[in-house]
Every structure is written in C-alpha cells, then in structure tokens.
Amino acid sequence: MKRLTTAPNLALAQLWADMLTQTGIPTTVQRAFASSLSGGVPPSETLPELWVDDEADHARALVRLDELQHPRRHLWACPQCHEVIDGPFEQCWNCGAAMPAA
Fold it and tell me: Which residues pair with 80 in a beta bridge?
C-alpha cells in the first residue's frame, strides 16, 4: 500500500476512492473517523487519507485523481438551436435535442 493524498473531508475521500477503484485502481480510505480527535492533535493529522493497494498503481492514480479534481470544461453547440451547452449535460436545455455523437 502507498499513500496517495489527504482529502479535505470524508465525503470527498470516499468519492475519490470509489471513482479510482471503478477505474481499476483499488483504493482505500484510511483515518476515516479520526476527525473526532480534532483539538487533541493537529487538524492536519485528522484528515482522511487515500491509499492505493498496489504501489505500481500510484503514478496512474495521481494522474486520475488530478483529472477528478480538475475536470476538463466540456462545451458543445446544439445542432438544432445552436445554444452553447456547458458542463456534463447530454441534452440541450433550450430545445431538448441530444448531444451530437463525438
């Protein structure tokens, strides 16, 4: 096992771990319940950590985690009304047309 990063909260840690695991990089969350120690130890010591199960996956996990933290902006123009659609939407919010195939 090799430490990947810390997360600002348990919800993000679990989300990132689940998404990495779904892409074939088994990842676990450690220190999930350490927040109860806040005040007795430095806050940075209570943040949840992500660990990859196999050290060989560490570099690939870092790249994938960066993609999760900084998603590419996705723009497309509706083929029917020419509205510019921003984000993960697959349907035009103006006229309801489907996103064209890539």
Answer: none
